[in-house]
Amino acid sequence: MLNFVVSCRFWQRALLINVLATVFVTGQAVGVKAQGRSPQQTPEPTVECELLIVGAGFAGTAAAYEGLLAGRTVCLTDITDWVGGQVSSQGTSALDEAKRMREKHFFPRGYNEFRDRLVKKYGSLSSGNCWVSVSCFLPSDGHQILSTMLQDAAKKGKGTLKWFPNTVIKALDYSPDGRQISSAIALQHAPAPNIPPLNTEPLSHLIEDIYRPENSARLKKQQIRFIPSTPSTPFTPSTPPPTPWYILEATETGEIIALADVPYRLGLDPLSHIDPSSPVKNNDSYCTQGFTYTFVMERTATPQPQPEPTFYPQYEPYFSYENSNNVGIDAVFTYRRIWSPDFQKRPKATRFGVATVLPGDLSMQNWTWGNDYRPGNQQDNLIYSREQLQQRGELEIGGWMGGLRTETLRRGEENAIAYYYWLVAGTTDSRLGDGVKQPAPNHRYITGLDSPMGTLHGLSKYPYIREARRIIGRPTFTYPHGFAMHEIDVSQIDYGDEAHYKETLPPEMYRKLRKSLAGLEFLKLPDDVDPDQIPRRTRSTIYPDSVGIAQYAMDFHPCMAEAPPEKPGNEERPGVRQAHGPAYPGQIPLRAMIPQKIDNLIISGKSIANSTIAAAAYRVHPFEWSVGAAAGVTADFALKEGVLPYQLVDDLPRREPLLEKLRSRLETEKNPTAFPNTSIFNLNWDEWKS
Fold it and tell me: Could you give the strand order of the β-sheet that contains 362-365, starting from the edge strand earlier in sequence?
């Protein structure tokens, strides 16, 4: 049973008090008097890989899974000590899925296996009976299940997994022509002697130390150089492949994209006929979707002591139930309830159709007007822009420090702790007014190294990141400024029926928008056609190079208009939610995974080539697995065939036989590249509408 819910060992309680008192109040590390440099540096070992996957989030884990099944030597790194990202180290262990995909189990094979293993462990997809999803579970179990899946994949495929937890990439080396990454220098960290274990302190306090190569009073470091290995599986041509290995970008923020300095976008894209809902005329790289430090709370039979954090007054003006449907602690608690023993035998709560709450139930919190932290200005943005990285010296040799603003991470952590206190003791509501929020003291904030989050401080090991740096793909005849997916490629919005677009877009932009959405009818349209007479296609864009699938609503957690986000009376950036709504079943084109400049770098996760609006539909669990699986299979395929990924698509729209072979393999191995009965000739996609 979950003994961590019942009690924490005495030493954990004592250490937790010390951690919260020192980290969240003074910002100093437990047991660390000062940063210091060690005069000794341990020798640099080299590690050989065929696939170097940087980031063990859901996409990175999927890529490793496919690489191992293909028999490859896979090196997998992560800044945390867990695999799984969203379902584990980020704590968002509630699967966001499109209804029809779920009904038909239309997911990649590894994702289906993960779901099957949840059922085997719990007797159903859920251990908690939540109302946001059919599957809510413990983050610690997400890590354990995925770890076992990787081990089993290695055995089945005769691959080799080299797992490097607590490891970040510090620098990259390149081939003489600059077109390939020839090695990667990493730093792996561990606690210094007589220092509390990792996961004692939150990320903000350690992240700068993590990226420094020298030892400190808190951490000891090991520098590692990743290099290509001799291929473990034969390749088809008689000549060696053009590269001996591939680097797969699977970090949560697009670290390798920034470090390699390939072209990318960040934040809001400018208004155009392909992103007609954008609220800005010029790129705003500082407004990205909010990030969230999740935590777990337990329902108790009796009121618990609820000490007020010293920083609570700073963040209290932000918190809200958001709308009248969510008022009351039970609504928020069951939203992502991740543990509820024998919930099938309990009576249902009438409002949300889930089991009633009993003492011992656990809830993971991820709430927009709660522990979401939503900076959006140059002085507080989380993910540094390229200009900011240059100013900080992070793009200089050896200067990379992770590309995140430490102060904003710290504020996000404090905001989450303050939100818990608001839930149990708060009496204000920033959006619904006075008299709505009532205290709910029968709860306990769950902490401990053996807790669901695996941290002594109780927050997730890493924040849930909704939006990352996004590459700009390679220019083509039809994409002269670089390939990318955009809003109109997936949105279900009828731009002709909504007055906003005709009234606010310049006439020529509105005409181009309507013509771009005409589908095959575009070929019949005269130049002077009345834009309001152009029929709107009833599907998403179909890509000949699709290697995966994605479907979810374009779901926004917009940045706030002013800094800091918790400023009293602050509101969301106006207009960002304009595109919010359902999306058609989408595809993941290989061109969106191929960066400019570097030929042996494959992009997965949220960093593929799309606009910020399209990215809102391309960020949840099934997509991450699908794009990760596509990256892993593509890397293996390219090694076997002796080609570079861009060579699979550089002759489009002409036929690409090897691309067809790759897509056939993906489909044969039950990694779908398209939804059933969805084509340019089928105008009835109602079965797959979200």
Answer: 337-339, 362-365, 295-299, 443-445
